[in-house]
Amino acid sequence: MKKYMTALLALALALGALTACGAKQDNSEAVEVDLPAFYAELEKKFQWNEGYMVDLEGEMLESYYPGISDIPVTQFVAKAPMMSSVVNELVLMQCQSEEDAAEAAAILQTRVETQAEGGAWYPESMEAWSKAQIIQHGAYVAMFASASYQQEMVDGFEALFA
């Protein structure tokens, strides 16, 4: 009986080891996402009129997200309202590697914390920033800060990788 149990246990361990060696599928790497198209869908869904959301670029981009321009990207969308008292800012990036995406996520997190801790000036704005989310799927990273559409934007982005 002991020999039978030992053989059975050895077989179970061998099968377990073989199963653990199987290839793990990572959907975030397999999925190709068109970030400008995703942004266009958001713009249409939330009826952001032409000119409401503007590209963050150049000095403004660097002042909001110091170091973000140094990260190599395949796709990049950074938008904020030209003038609005309502928090509505987003960044969508496809970086060249997961490591680059993690670096971008850290920069985006710094922006969120700075705004939530007083940089946004008004209590309502700081509260909206405190609920902002940064999401990373492989080489893709996104930041959503919105007083009105936060969860809808996050859900839409997550659906791209489902």
N-C termini distance: 48 Å
Count the DSSP helices: 7
Structural shape: globular
Low-pLDDT runs of 5+ residues are 4-12, 14-28
How confident overall, as mean pLDDT? 86
Strand content is: 15-25%
Return Rg in Å: 22 Å
Could you state the order of secondary-structure elements as H and E? HHHEHEEHHEEH
- The main sheet orders its strands as 1-2-3-5-4
Structural class call reads: alpha+beta
SS elements, strand count? 5
Fraction of residues in H or I helices: 40-55%
Biggest beta-sheet profile:
5 strands, antiparallel
Question: Quick summary of this structure?
Answer:
The chain is an alpha+beta fold and 162 residues long.
What's the topology here?
Elements: H1 2-20, H2 27-30, H3 35-45, E1 53-55, H4 58-64, E2 73-81, E3 88-95, H5 98-119, H6 123-130, E4 133-137, E5 140-146, H7 150-159
Helix pairs in contact: 5-6
Structure description:
The protein has helices spanning 2-20, 27-30, 35-45, 58-64, 98-119, 123-130, 150-159, and strands at 53-55, 73-81, 88-95, 133-137, 140-146. It has 162 residues and is of the alpha+beta class. A hairpin with a 2-residue loop joins strand 4 (133-137) and strand 5. Helix 5 (98-119) runs antiparallel to helix 6 (123-130). The longest helix is centred in the C-terminal third of the chain and has 22 residues, at 98-119. The chain is globular and about 40 Å long.
